[in-house]
Amino acid sequence: IISLRGCLNKKMRSFEGFLSTTFAFLVLRLCSVTCDITDGNAEHLKREHSLMKPYQGVGSNPSSQWDFWGSTLVTSSYVRLTPDERSKQGSIWNTVPCYLKDWEMHVQFKIHGSGKKNLHGDGIALWYTKDKLHPGPVFGNQDQFLGLAIFLDTFRNDLHGMDRSFPFISAMVNNGSVSYDHGKDGRSSELGGCSVEIRNREHDTYLAIRYSKGRLTVMVDVDDKNEWKECIDIGGVRLPTGYFFGASAATGDLSDNHDIISMKLYQLMVEHTPEEENLDWTKIEPSVSLLKSPKDNVDDPTGNFRGTPLTGWKVFLLLLCALLGIVVCAVVGAVVFQKRQERNKRFY
Ligand SMILES: [Ca+2]
What we know:
Blueprint: H1 2-34, E1 66-70, E2 73-74, E3 79-82, E4 89-94, E5 103-112, E6 123-129, E7 135-138, E8 146-153, E9 168-175, E10 192-195, E11 205-212, E12 215-221, E13 229-234, E14 237-238, E15 244-250, E16 257-267, H2 274-278, E17 287-288, H3 312-347
Antiparallel strand pairs: 1-4, 2-3, 3-16, 4-15, 5-11, 5-16, 6-8, 6-15, 8-9, 9-10, 11-12, 12-13, 14-17
The structure holds calcium ion.
C-alpha cells in the first residue's frame, strides 16, 4: 500500500507539475495576446484626439476638437463620411496635433450599402498627416501627403492584381514625393496589407493602428470574436510628432455608406533613451527603412518590378540551402562531439 501510495503521490506530483506548467503557459499566452494591447484602458485614452458618441459639438461648436468637410454627416450615433451615393467625398479631422511618441488608435467603422458583390466603392482612408482638411483624389484626401495612411479599399481597380481579394487593407508612408496610384490600388507604394471581409457585416467592425518605437502594426477585429488579428506589422517606420489624425472616404461610379463610429487614441507607455528623448520629434521626415523603400517599387524603365516577391523556385532554393546548412552543422557538430568523447576516453 505504501509503495502504491508513493507511486500515486509521484503521479499526482507530476500531474500537478504538468497542470502548473500548462497554467503558466496559458497565462503567458493570454498575456501575449491581451497585455500587448491597451484595449479600452481608459487611463491612457486621450480625449483630445478621440472621437466618440454622441460627438458633442463636432461641426457646430467652435471649440470642438474635430472638424469635417464634404459629404460628411454627423448624427448622434455615427459620422457618415459618404452616403451610398455616387461621386461623394467626405472627411473628418482632429484639429489638435498629436505630440505622443507612441500611440494606438482604435477605429470602429461600418461600411455598408445596397451594392452587390464587387459593385460598391471606394473605401475609407485613415490618416496621420502633416496637413488636415485638404480634399483630393486619394479617398477624398490630398495626394502626395506627408505622413501615414491606412487604406480600407473595398473596390478592385487593378484587374491585373487578381492574386488578392478585396476589400484589401494596406498601409503607406509618404514624405510628400510619392503619388497614390488608384489604378493599381496603391500597390506600388504599399508597405503591407491583408484581405479582410469588412463590408455589410452584421456585427461591429474595428481596426487598430499602433505606432511605437518605429514599429507600425495594424490589426483588425471584424469577426465578432472580440480579438485582434494581425494585418500589417513592419519595423523601421519613422513618423514625426505634431501631425493630425483624420479619416476620409470617397465614392465614384459605385458607392457605399462609409461610417466612422469612433476613433479612440491611447497613449502607449514606452520608455525612450535620453538621446531619443532629446531629439526634436517634430522634425522627423516620414520614412521607412525597408529592404525596399516604397519608391523602389515604382516601375523601372525596363518594365520590371524591383523588389518583386520571391517566386516559388527561389523559395525552394533558399529552403534547400537552409536545410543543407543545418545538415552540415549537424554533421560537423557530431564529428566534433565524437572526437571530444574519444579524447576524454583516452584520458581515463
Ligand atoms: Ca481601389
